[in-house]
């Protein structure tokens, strides 16, 4: 059975969380708890892509994971509102782990494109005092146990996707973009990470994932990185199900990434 509902996360925002929950059955391990995947769709911090929302949640459920889609604040909202919303979403899932049959130590934050920046931002910043002050809680409440970063916007340097940072920071873009170049913020408390990108991505270059992975290695953070040889940006599942009206997004070479990710979760989280 799937329960789908929207829950307000913070009083100062319109963000919501859509839940895709499998109930336990007395016939099938009635006390089962599952990993949870909280999905942040992409859209350059200007919109939220449906192609990277419900289809991803349903795919995650097919692996036996509980799934959640965060509809976070976008332009004209600015940093750090979306980050606080994601932290609140992780706390909500962890707080309700018994009701939602979630393993509270297996909560993965997943992001696509600019949503990858949001997910990774929590991964490198969850322990920061400003979040504890803003959310009036303990940082461990919103600590992610893993990250899934799909063709993520990460760097604000010369190889970065500048439009995402302009939308995120507005008139603070020039003064604060360097501080949100996430490869520079990786630390020993960053959670294990699964990344994938395509070599042909001309919008968000694969160097974003490569630079982040290099820093994960520096801090001995476990990670798995896949650079697929073909396909442009925003592929989602790479199947006809998630292709847009122009059939962009169909790429056979990347369709195995969800299975690779599911195996990674089973063996590493």
TrEMBL record:
GO terms for molecular function: hydrolase activity. SUPFAM superfamilies: alpha/beta-Hydrolases. Residues 34-216 form the BD-FAE-like domain. It comes from the Bacteria. InterPro entries: AB_hydrolase_fold (IPR029058), BD-FAE-like_dom (IPR049492), GDXG_lipolytic_enzyme (IPR050300). It holds the Pfam family BD-FAE. Gene3D superfamilies: alpha/beta hydrolase. Keywords: Hydrolase. The keyword Hydrolase applies. This is Alpha/beta hydrolase. It comes from Enterococcus entomosocium.
């Amino acid at each position: 059975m799937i329960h789908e509902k929207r829950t307000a996360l913070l009083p100062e925002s319109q963000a919501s969380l859509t839940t895709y929950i499998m109930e336990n059955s007395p016939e099938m391990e009635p006390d089962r708890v599952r990993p949870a995947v909280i999905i942040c769709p992409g859209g350059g911090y200007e919109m939220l892509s449906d192609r990277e929302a419900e289809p991803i949640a349903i795919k995650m459920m097919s692996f036996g994971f509980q799934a959640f889609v965060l509809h976070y604040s976008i332009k004209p909202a600015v940093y750090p509102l979306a980050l606080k919303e994601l932290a609140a979403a992780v706390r909500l899932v962890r707080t309700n782990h018994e009701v939602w049959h979630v393993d509270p130590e297996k909560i993965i934050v997943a992001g696509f494109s600019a949503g990858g920046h949001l997910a990774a931002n929590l991964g490198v910043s969850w322990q920061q005092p400003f979040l504890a002050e803003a959310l009036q809680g303990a940082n461990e409440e919103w600590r992610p146990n893993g990250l899934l970063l799909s063709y993520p916007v990460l760097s604000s340097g010369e190889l970065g996707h500048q439009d995402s940072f302009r939308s995120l920071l507005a008139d603070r873009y020039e003064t604060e973009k360097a501080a949100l170049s996430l490869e520079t913020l990786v630390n020993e408390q960053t959670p294990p990470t699964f990344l994938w990108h395509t070599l042909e991505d001309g919008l968000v270059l694969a160097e974003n994932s490569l630079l982040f992975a290099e820093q994960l290695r520096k801090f001995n953070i476990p990670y798995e990185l896949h650079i697929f040889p073909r396909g442009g940006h925003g592929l989602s599942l790479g199947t006809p199900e998630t292709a847009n009206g122009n059939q962009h997004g169909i790429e056979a070479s990347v369709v195995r990434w969800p299975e690779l990710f599911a195996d990674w979760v089973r063996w590493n989280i």
